[in-house]
What does this fold into?
Amino acid sequence: MKIRTYVLSVAVLIVFLSAGTDKAGLTRGIHSGDIAPGIKSLGTDADITFSNGSGCYTLLHFWAAYDANSRMRNVQLWNKLGQDGLSQVKMISVSLDEPESVFTETVKADNLEMTNQVHERLGQNSEVYKKYGLKKGLGNFLIDNKGIIIAKNVTPEMLSEIMNKQKN
It folds into this structure.
């Protein structure tokens, strides 16, 4: 009987301790399930936030001309969005090339429109580079309309899969 009472007491204690507190909730960070950090004006007139009521997802992709893989992935993702008609996904590409001329010439050479292409002239020294924990290889984040990161380092194939699952 004592063991039973003890186990029951411990179980009740665990339930109360694990119950939410005023500070419980989503955290701001760079992992799946975290709220994506906002971005202060990067060549735009407004700050970039991801929480919206439109039902659209945001694919935030970081790239640089000096990083061949991230540059190639940028083109592939833009082409995927155009081909598959993934209208529920808005892509924002952030170039981390320091010289603006490298950014603009690369966008032209890759046959991309300047729409939603953003230049961060401080490159690896920028706040956004540090805030998103970027490293060599850069990467991307798929963010839902509540501002929550649902996937990282998405390939074009993964993007289609994820969006098909989101519809169901």
